[in-house]
Amino acid sequence: MKPIPPLFTVHKNSSVGSPTRLALLKLLHDPRAVISMSVLGLIILLVLIGPFFLPDYAKQSLDNQLLSPTFNHPMGTDQLGRDVFARVVKGGRLSLAIGLLGTLVSILVGTLYGCVAGFYNEKLDLFMMRVVDILYSLPYMFLVIILIFQFGKNLLVLFIALGLVQWLTVARIVRGQVLALKNEEFILAAKTLGVGNLRIIGRHIIPNVLGVVIVYATLTVPTVILQEAFLSFLGLNVSDCTWGVLIAEGKEYMDEAWWLIFFPGTVLTLCLLCMNFLGDSLRDALDPTAKIN
C-alpha cells in the first residue's frame, strides 16, 4: 500500500518555493496561527451574519431585566431586558471596524512618512524624525481625548484620532527598513536609469517593506480595539454598543449580574489574544531563516 503524500511539499526549483508560498506554508504549519485564524474567522463570521438572525440588540423588555443565561438568552439580559448575546455580536461588528479602520489610517500615514524620511536626504530625515520624537513625548491618549472633545463623538473622528496616534511606531519601523534598502543594487540601478524617486518608492521600496508592515498591522488592530474599549470605559464612547461600552455598563452590576461583564470581556480578550498570536506567527513566517516545522 502506497503511503499518503503530504498535503504540502516544497520542491527546490518549483514555484511553491517562492517567498510568498513559503511564508504561507510556514503559517499553515504553525498551530498557533491555525487556531488563531479559525477563532478569528468564527468571530468575524458571527458578527457579520449574527445580527440578521438574533433579536434586535436595542429592544428593551422590562419583564426580562437581568435574567441569567438561559436557552433563550445564552448570555443573559441586561438592566433594560436587552439580549446580551445580540449586543455582544453587534458590539463586535463596531469594535472590529474601529480596530481595522484605525489601523489602516495609522499604516497609511506611517508608511508614507517613513518612506519619505528614510529615502530622501539626511537633513529632511533628521527634521522628520525629530517631529516624531516630539509627538512621542506627548501623552497619546490625551491627544485622542482632545480630538474627540474638539470634533465630537462620532466613529469617523475616532478612526482618525486612534489612527493618528498609532502611526509613529510604523513610521520608525518603515524608515529603518528604507535606510537599509535604498543602498541596495536594484535601487541604485533604478536611479542610474533615471527612474523618478516617487516611482522608486511606489514600485520598489513599499513592496519590500510590506511584510514588516503587515506584521505590525496585526499587532496594532488589538491595540486600537483596546484603546477604544478604554475610552468607552471612561465614558467617551461614540456608540451605544461596542465591547468597551458593554464592559463599562456591566461593571455597575458586577455583584448581581456577573454575565454583563464576563461575556463581553471574554470575547474581547479572546479576540485580542488571537490577533497577537497571529502577529507573532506572521513574523516567524516572514522570517527567511525560520524553518518549517
Summarize the SSE layout with pairings.
Layout (H helix, E strand, L loop, with lengths): L18 H10 L2 H19 L34 H36 L2 H16 L2 H12 L3 H27 L3 H8 L4 H37 L9 H8 L8 H27 L8
Can you characterise this structure?
This protein is mainly α. The chain has one domain (19-47, 83-285): MetI-like fold, CATH 1.10.3720. Helices cover 68% and strands 0% of the residues. The chain contains 10 helices and no strands. It has helices at 19-28, 31-49, 84-119, 122-137, 140-151, 155-181, 185-192, 197-233, 243-250, 259-285. Helix 1 (19-28) packs across helix 10 (259-285) and helix 6 crosses helix 8. The longest helix is centred in the last third of the chain and has 37 residues, at 197-233. The radius of gyration is 23 Å and the shape is elongated. The two termini are 27 Å apart. The model is unreliable at 1-16 (pLDDT under 50).
Radius of gyration based on Cα positions? 23 Å
N-to-C SSE series? Answer: HHHHHHHHHH
Count of helix runs: 10
- Average pLDDT value? 82
Q: How far do the termini sit from each other?
A: 27 Å
| Shape-level CATH architecture | Orthogonal Bundle
Superfamily (CATH H level) name: MetI-like
Poorly predicted runs: 1-16
Shape: elongated
Determine the strand fraction and express it as a percent band. Answer: under 5%
* Count of all domains: 1
In the CATH hierarchy, the third-tier topology is known as: MetI-like fold
How many strands in all? 0
Classify the helix fraction into a percent range. 55-70%
